[in-house]
C-alpha cells in the first residue's frame, strides 16, 4: 500500500488529487488547517484526515509524527498548500505568501525526509505554477506574459527552485514540480477570473507525477504535456 500525504487538501486540486489517489489504492493522509473542513473532505475522498498547517512548525511535526506512528514510512508527499495573498503587494502580505508557498515546502519536506527515506520509491510533487517561470512570463505567446501576480509568481519561482535543489541533495527521492493548468478554483474566482477547467483534469498531472516509477524524472517542472522551461 502506497502511503501519501497531501497538504492543503480540503478543497480544489488537493482534494481531487486525494480522491484520485485513494481510488488507485493509496492510503492518503489529507492535510488541512481547519479540522472540521478537513475531516469532511477526508470522508468524502475516502482518505484519512491529519491536521496540518504548513506555516506552523509544531503542526507539521505533529502531522508527520502521526503518519510515522501509523505507517512507519511515507511514499508520496504532495505540496499543494498555497495562497495568493489576495493579490495585494506589501510587506506583511509578502511574508504570508512566501511563508505558505515556499517556506512551508521546506518545513514539511524537512519533517518528512526521515519517513521518505524509508520508502522503496519515494516521490515528492510540488504544485507550482508556470507564473513562476521566467520563460513563460517573458514569452509573448504564453498567457502568463500578460498577467501580473508579483508575490504569487515570485513564491512559485521559489517553490520550483526548492524542488530542483532537493532533487540534487536527495538523489534517492524523486522531486518534481508542476503547472496544473488554468483551473476553476477559489483562488481563480477570488481574482475575478472566470473559466478554467475542472479540478479533475488538473489533478491528473499531480497523480501522474505522484505515481512515477523508479525510472521516472526528477528535478523537473512539468505540465500535462511534459517538460516546461523555466
From TrEMBL:
Keywords: NADP, Oxidoreductase. InterPro entries: NAD(P)-bd_dom_sf, Sc_DH/Rdtase_CS, SDR_fam. PROSITE patterns: ADH_SHORT. One of its GO terms (molecular function) is oxidoreductase activity. Belongs to the short-chain dehydrogenases/reductases (SDR) family. This is NAD(P)-dependent dehydrogenase, short-chain alcohol dehydrogenase family.
